[in-house]
Amino acid sequence: VPQTTKIPKDRRNLRVDERGLDPETLLAVRRTNRYLRIARDLSDEDDIKSQYEWLGELIKHGSLVDAADKLRELLGVSIADQKQCSDSASALRMWRQKIETKLGIYTFQFLMPENELDGFSYVEEGAPYAITLNSRNAKNRQIFTLFHELGHILEGSSGICLTTSSSNAINVERRCDSFAADFLLPASTVKAPNNYDALKTLAQEMCVSAEAYARRAYGLKIITKST
């Protein structure tokens, strides 16, 4: 009898808890699980262990936000490299390739309902790990989700992430959001936009959404709610 696929436990979408996961989402989870099992079967245990030595070193840096600079060094992507991406699609391809080759974390894209979740991280059965993105989402949104879920892996957790009433889960989500924002938009790169067109231009330069850029600028107190 085939083993039961383990669903990421840390659900943060109240709508999902009410009625269960959509069949498309369940299929994405099963595919992720299956591909990881194949990778595990084809890999030597010592190779997998050495593949994730970087994780222990990065955790030593303490908080997720403190680890952002070190992670950029591991990935070998400078701010200039990030800005050289022609568009969000090419940026997403670059980030996925770097995360897979430098960190050993598999990244997948599967069709899932847009109103259910943005993606999930999978660490349920140990290394190797994976991040699965909702391919229906805009590329900018997928990039942010990619690093949000990477934050979960750095914390040793996995989940299907949006929102929940649990205060503990909300804190985890905020930490992962802060990590993604700090990595993609370091404080030294964020400028105050004069208007919405300027905001879109600044966001496009960094291959992030205008909303993500505005939230980061607001968090750094570069702009105010009335700006």
Protein model, in words:
The structure is a single chain. This protein is of the alpha+beta class and 227 residues long. Helices cover 56% and strands 7% of the residues. The chain is built from 11 helices and 4 strands. It has helices spanning 14-19, 23-42, 45-51, 53-59, 64-75, 79-83, 88-103, 139-154, 167-184, 196-206, 210-219, and strands at 106-110, 119-122, 130-134, 159-160. It has a 4-stranded mixed sheet, with helices on both faces. Helix 5 (64-75) packs parallel to helix 9, helix 7 (88-103) packs parallel to helix 8 (139-154) and helix 10 (196-206) packs across helix 11 (210-219).
Helix fraction by DSSP (H/I, runs of at least 4): 55-70%
Radius of gyration: 18 Å
Low-confidence stretches: 10-18, 163-167
Biggest beta sheet attributes: 4 strands, mixed
Please report the total strand number as a whole number. 4
Order of helices and strands: HHHHHHHEEEHEHHH
Topology:
Blueprint: H1 14-19, H2 23-42, H3 45-51, H4 53-59, H5 64-75, H6 79-83, H7 88-103, E1 106-110, E2 119-122, E3 130-134, H8 139-154, E4 159-160, H9 167-184, H10 196-206, H11 210-219
Helix pairs in contact: 5-9, 7-8, 8-9, 10-11
